[in-house]
Predict the structure.
Amino acid sequence: MQIKELILYTNSLGKLKDFYYETLGMNVIQESETSITLQSRLTNITFNLSNNLKDSFYHFAFNIPENQFREAKDWAKQRVELIKLKNEDEFDFKSWNAHSVYFYDPAGNIIELIARHNLKNSSQNIFTGNSLLGVSEIGCPVHKVKEFYEILNDTFNIPSFSGDMKTFTAAGNDDGLFIIVPQRRKWFPDCPEARIFPMTVKIISEEVNELKLKDLPYKIISVIE
């Protein structure tokens, strides 16, 4: 599965443009008074202005070249303050064969840079904002983890990747994952409680379909490419 586009909401549009363009060096491919669209290699991220969602925040992760975790961490530390847990600011997910660092953007979104060593995406280039390969995770706080996963799987044939179907479930693969957690569960590593805010996720998968949920402000669209 690949995450092709995210559409998220914020009341800090100007600050986010400055952060992603000036601080992280990402390309802004479209902008207006009410939205900006950022481009990574595989995923576009659109932030729409919504003054009614003053405290909205999301969790998403960028895949980075699997051999450049150290370079990515050094690059990030020059630009942001990394989120720590028990005085550690990098995390080794042995069961996923991956390393991550986390930081906030100005709107409080929890950003993760993750090197997944099972992927053949190594690079010899200097690490820059262009090294953010694409969004590989989007957090989905829900009312009931197992019920949401079953709807997701029935609609798009997305397999379970990891988790217990109660407090945490990742669905998809190393290229793209829905991180499904119960609302109010704290986001890893030491972040605020997960909360439900509107979003649209466009994915590339083996199924063409669209999912709207009655009890959640999420829209998920899949295409074949």
